[in-house]
Write a structure and sequence with these properties.
This protein is an alpha+beta fold. Helices cover about 35% and strands about 10% of the residues.
Length: about 180
């Protein structure tokens, strides 16, 4: 039998679960939920517990739940370019983490959400002079993938804007 509860912590959805299964990991639970829920309802943090804390009335004591910790990958690659170094620093600053991030760490797995994503794209625009959308971040949530996208944007030739169309006046039409 598995028990679970959901809470929000700093505007991030957090799940706490208790299971009798010894082989069930947080990644297993996340994959299970991602297959069944819209992306915005999949918890950012999943925390296994020995038991859910209860109040004297038998309800879940949300005040006694531990503070969730973002899972930083330990096997990620270190930044290889100045662009990747800058993006890793901007990710860490936006997420408010002092943990050493890698270029393979996923912004949303580390606790990011769309509002923080908008903040990150603004920081990127200020630091690198590149305008990105939150959609770009959803499609490329790691510093490595975002660096590739930014490099491709910077390498693309700049297209000169066409002049705006305007209606010809009657005298212009008659003189043609």
């Amino acid at each position: 039998m598995t028990q679970a509860t959901l809470t929000t912590h700093h505007d991030q959805l957090t799940a706490y679960y208790v299971t009798e299964s010894t082989h069930l990991t947080a990644d297993d639970v996340r994959r299970h939920l991602a297959d069944r829920l819209p992306e915005h309802l999949v918890p950012t943090h999943l925390t296994p517990l020995d038991r859910l804390p209860l109040t004297p009335n038998g309800k879940i004591d949300t005040q006694a739940l531990p503070t969730p910790r973002a899972a930083v990958s330990s096997g990620g690659r270190q930044p290889r370019t100045p662009l990747e170094e800058t993006l890793v620093a901007l990710f860490a600053g936006t997420l408010g983490t002092s943990a050493a991030l890698t270029i393979d760490d996923d912004f949303f797995t580390l606790g990011g959400h769309s509002l923080l994503g908008a903040r990150l794209t603004n920081h990127i625009a200020g630091s690198l002079g590149v305008r990105l959308t939150v959609r770009d971040l959803f499609q490329r949530p790691t510093p490595a993938r975002l660096a590739e996208h930014i490099a491709s944007l910077q390498a693309a030739p700049v297209q000169k804007a066409r002049p705006a169309l305007r209606r010809r006046t009657r005298t212009e039409r008659m003189s043609s």
